[in-house]
Amino acid sequence: MQKTAAILAIGDELLSGRTRDANMHYLAGWLTERGVALTEARVVPDDAAMIGEALNALRTRYDYVFTSGGIGPTHDDITVDAIAAALGVKVIENPQAAAMVRAYYGGRGIDVTPARLRMARTPEGAELINNPVSGAPGVRIENIFVMAGVPRIFQAMLNAIEGAIEHGEVIHSCAATARNLPESMLADQLRDIQAALKGVTLGSYPIDGDEMGVTIVARSQNMAIADQAINAVAAAMRALGAEPEMEDRK
Amino acid sequence: MQKTAAILAIGDELLSGRTRDANMHYLAGWLTERGVALTEARVVPDDAAMIGEALNALRTRYDYVFTSGGIGPTHDDITVDAIAAALGVKVIENPQAAAMVRAYYGGRGIDVTPARLRMARTPEGAELINNPVSGAPGVRIENIFVMAGVPRIFQAMLNAIEGAIEHGEVIHSCAATARNLPESMLADQLRDIQAALKGVTLGSYPIDGDEMGVTIVARSQNMAIADQAINAVAAAMRALGAEPEMEDRK
């Protein structure tokens, strides 16, 4: 049985158009490689009520919830407080986190100010997620991983929690792309192939900027069935006069 | 009063890591330019129950809901059916949509197959959104705009609904970036500037790949106040020995 996961990306800048979120896409690939199904994503502003409501919806429904953003030292970093409020626990200055912040900044000859120590505040009962990039740790509490929004730090924190994620059966995927073949030409064949083969999902994706081409992706826990499906798709493409470009399965 | 909006991006490929969503970011900028506040985003798989539940949560809460994805001709395109089910209305073959599909394909000497006519199915009572790129229209019903997932078509459909969106006061933003200045050095000053100026929001964003630099963004409906805030931020940066790079307000 695959574990399920959700991501809650937090930040006004993601919704104003200033910043294009990168963490959802990265996490999606990372979880897929580990056989965990990313099943939902939400983006909310730096608003405690909205963060709390989304978190409570996601944490009860999925095995893992990852948040990104809002754990820095400035006034707009409210994620820790919002999450603690949603869980009904206090925020404390975590001694271990404070030691990590002191060690990081102290070791670089930088003052450990109250603003920096703000990054040592965690919900009571939380464990820490190591941050090798910039010192201030992330937080794990219950099934929630509270991580930084800066992509390089988000990715480093994912490495740090590798051991906490239970791997499942990996979904294999392989793809065939046909140029100059609109997806509607293949619709009937795809439906038939999907119906004939159990345990495979076919996705059909028009090529952006060239709506007369299409990529078909076959996904299955069984690599042989994914191969069988994509070979049937490729044959259907050839029967329509196209020469499919095959993508290695992974 | 600004109108609010949400986007519901639909597609297994967005959650598997195969495709990086581009429509949320584009829509965010497009709405910001028109003084509409994108307030929430969700991504769900091609699953009718999940689409319906998310849609019903968003459409009652925000003035506008935009969906992207799942309106093509193939078996995995279930968005129209899921939305109709969520609204409790029937799906019909829309005569006007069928005429558009026939005109587009017929005009190119391509057969109008049942699969292509699948793209003419709409919830009963829907209006159409013109698709100048590939013929098959989007759908507007109540406060919901059902649009294509392919970014070029999504963007063309946004142009087509320009007149249906009520513009509000635009939030102006301007920014100052300091290299080699960690955001925690500025935390107290930002808090003070934010407290002293009404009607402005300051956001603090570490620079990715260089966590010792930071961009501060001031947002306000009042351009003069945004300017005043960012000038105060720039002065605080200079007082710490940094030379801010200013970004033109928009």
Automatic annotation (TrEMBL), chains A, B:
Native organism taxonomy: Bacteria, Pseudomonadati, Pseudomonadota, Alphaproteobacteria, Parvularculales
Annotated MoaB/Mog domain residues: 6-168
Matching InterPro entries: CinA, FLAD1_M, MoaB/Mog-like_dom_sf, MoaB/Mog_dom
Organism per entry: Hyphococcus aureus
Protein's UniProt name: Competence/damage-inducible protein A
PANTHER family: NICOTINAMIDE-NUCLEOTIDE AMIDOHYDROLASE PNCC, NMN AMIDOHYDROLASE-LIKE PROTEIN YFAY
SMART domains attached to this UniProt entry: MoCF_biosynth (SM00852)
SUPFAM superfamilies in UniProt: Molybdenum cofactor biosynthesis proteins
UniProt signal peptide: none
